[in-house]
Design goal:
Blueprint: H1 10-35, H2 39-49, H3 54-78, H4 85-123, H5 126-132, H6 137-175, H7 180-190, H8 193-220, H9 226-255
Helix pairs in contact: 1-6, 2-6, 3-4, 3-6, 4-6, 4-7, 4-8, 4-9, 6-8, 8-9
């Protein structure tokens, strides 16, 4: 009597992928102490995922701040509260928009690059060659990129917030004629460093860890074909975006 096995469901396959990603995280954490000897590689990755992403982060931050300032000015003018424009923009950026939008841009720019680079190493047997030469690919390839993402994400979020506030200032003060002193004084008196700014910092650290974990996992476990690398980069963007928004909701619920 032959036994016919049913193909695994999509739910079971997704749960298996989540479990494998969790095990991969523990393997990375175990390789972090060994990766400290490759400090130059970590610095190079910080430059690659951080400094090379500044153009898109600064551009998007400026225009997001300008649009946010324009929309909020007309909304607040209905209630005669345009003086609170700086406060509302700053709180929106520090708490939510800055970390979240930065993480989405990071996943689209740096995350796909990390996945494609590691996936190409897998396809060309470079990772296997490292193991044959007694070099741990997790310590030399994966861990530096993981640490670089955690370091670069909060810095990029700070740049995004700064350009967003500048954009709102250009629209509210320079264009629409809001008083400059009112804009800045209300902002500085209402925004708290620990409850507002640090909320965005904690979120940025979490988003950096999750986005780089997904990017390195997808690249490290991709099938060694060109089609496999293409699918891996697509999954990196999709999974990173979903994970970022889900973690944002959970952290907001706890931090509030």
């Amino acid at each position: 009597m032959s036994i016919v096995r049913k193909p695994p469901s999509r739910l079971a396959d997704s749960l298996a992928q989540i479990g494998a990603c969790g095990i991969f995280l523990f393997r990375i954490l175990g390789a972090v102490p060994l990766s400290l000897r490759y400090l130059r590689e970590t610095v190079r990755q910080v430059y690659f995922v951080g400094a090379m992403s500044l153009v898109i982060i600064m551009t998007c931050g400026l225009f997001v701040g300008m649009v946010l300032g324009l929309q909020l000015y007309h909304t607040l003018s209905i209630f005669g509260g345009t003086a609170a424009l700086g406060t509302v923009v700053a709180l929106s950026l520090y708490r939510e928009l800055g970390p979240v939008v930065t993480a989405l841009l990071f996943a689209g720019r740096a995350g796909t690059s990390i996945t494609a680079e590691i996936g190409l190493m897998r396809a060309t047997d470079q990772l296997d060659a490292m193991e044959m030469m007694a070099v741990d690919p997790l310590a030399y390839v994966v861990a530096p990129r993981f640490l670089a993402g955690i370091i670069a994400m909060p810095l990029l979020a700070c740049v995004f917030n700064a350009l967003g506030i500048l954009g709102a200032h250009l629209v509210g003060v320079v264009w629409l004629g809001l008083d400059n002193g009112t804009f800045w004084s209300n902002m500085t008196s209402s925004v708290d460093v620990w409850s507002d700014v640090m909320t965005g910092v904690w979120k940025s650290l979490a988003f950096g860890a999750v986005c780089t974990l997904i990017a390195t996992f997808q690249g490290y476990t991709t099938p060694p074909t060109s089609e496999g690398v293409a699918y891996a980069t697509t999954r990196t963007v999709v999974f990173s975006s979903i994970a970022t928004l889900a973690i944002d909701f959970v952290m907001t619920a706890f931090l509030m």
